[in-house]
## 1
Amino acid sequence: VVIGDSDLPPSAGSGGSFGAGSACAAAALACEDILAELGRRMNAAPEDMRLKDGVVAAGTRTSPLADLVRGSPIAAKGKTSPGKESQATSQASHGAQFAEVAVNAVTGEVRVRRMLGVFDIGRVLNVKTAKNQIVGGMVWGLAYALSEDGVVDTRNGRFVNPDFGEYHVAVNADVPQIEAYFIEEIDDSANPVGAKGVGELGIAGSGAAIVNAIHNATGVRIYDMPVTLDKLLPHLPPV
């Protein structure tokens, strides 16, 4: 894979959760052309061929892949761009998240005990990296809900807490057991590989689940994130 070179054609970039879907779509289209040429050399339809352990099989005939490309490697190009489906169908990823939260009735201290998320991101291209991204997003959402707060001085527009000493991100001690699972429903309308965005999906839902759990535990609804002690304590019921 070659990326990050100004000699290359422009791409969708890596923001907005469409990097993998766009790049893999072009790669998939190129692979279709490669498969068609391989079928021509094998004298078989692409859908009738099987590739395993470096051997191409079609019916009862087999041939090492190396023999089919020896002396004449197969090269193909794939190109993709937004099509009519982007205007005709909704292609969003979806998820449901759950959190178990404990709130100290005296001090108002909040502790997240466990979190669970189930997600539909279309075809899962890489289970390990996709799960890591989702779990990382859930940790980020936890910090959004409970500690991260960029304080801006309204007189000059500068951040009052520009370092990690005063801008509090979640650390290991803050993060509970987290489970994340995928329901793989390949979305043919999204792109040729059926994959959808995974990047930001874990963040917003986890913060919302935590704030809802705080409300369920205390009856207090806080609308100004993060839910810090000064916002929660005055509204807690008497012990």
## 2
Amino acid sequence: SYHNLGGAFRESIHINMLYGLDTWVMNNPKKKPIRIFEVGFGTGLNAWLTLVWAEQNQIPVLYHSIEPFPLTEDIYSQLNYGDMDDAIFHYKPYLQRLHKAEWDKGIIMSEYFNMKKEKVTLQDVQLYPSDVVFYDAFAPSKQPEMWSKVVLRKVCDSLNAGGIFTTYCATGQLKRDLKEMGLAVETLPGPPGKKEMTRGWRK
């Protein structure tokens, strides 16, 4: 499953919008554009909500996402995120555009949202400096290679000073690893269905 059964929509807003983007802007009100790296494009939910956030706040975002195994159209065409909230219904068409956008190429998706999605593994991708990281890989029990110290260090080293690392994962091992890599680590209340989440800061 790609989703938190307690509600993927609310989970993404809670972890990545509230404790990621909103927090970054509060601490860096004059720094634009915001550079975001997402581990796991998946259903496109995080990218789509970030586009909505960027348009509503009129803050430019440069979004870089990776996904070695993209969903096929017969699956992503059934996604109904645009029906979750009347206030963002008119952004619904962008979800299909995000999925249909050409891979491995920078694309202007809207006035405030530029995206590059790459069909590549985290081990092989070339990372750019990032202000915020959405670490949305499958759970360590399902995809342990995505939580190894080697790949975590690669991602942490790409964070700019003051950069934020957000993830639903709250294992003790992850927190210890992030601290070892120089991040200040917080355990925060999780979204519905999850007791805790993790946020790291590049000192």
